[in-house]
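User: Some background: our group keeps a shared notebook of sequences we're curious about, and every so often someone picks one and asks for a predicted structure to add to the entry. Today it's my turn. The entry only has the sequence so far, pasted here. Could you supply the structure so I can complete it?
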Amino acid sequence: MTKTMTFDELRQFKSSLPDGTMARIAEELDLSVETVRNYFGGNNFNEGKPTGVHIEPGPRGGIVVLDDTTILDKARAILEEHQAKEQESV
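Assistant: Of course. Here's the predicted structure to add to the notebook entry:
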């Protein structure tokens, strides 16, 4: 399944993730941490692999098309889990 969003939205989402999320996603999906970072806009292809992220120039950082939402879905699940834990501690 593909997902389209602006680059700014992708980076804002990444910024909202709790510490350690990149490493956790990498471990759970058997990927390198750099590959996960590349998915969220990084460009270290010496250490990580391309991830099917296509960026077209435009407003708000351009348009991003994600060929596969597996990493995004895992990140969303981790964020929801983190938010639920925060609610429990309130």
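Suggested note for the entry: The mean pLDDT is 88. The chain is about 50% helix and 15% strand.
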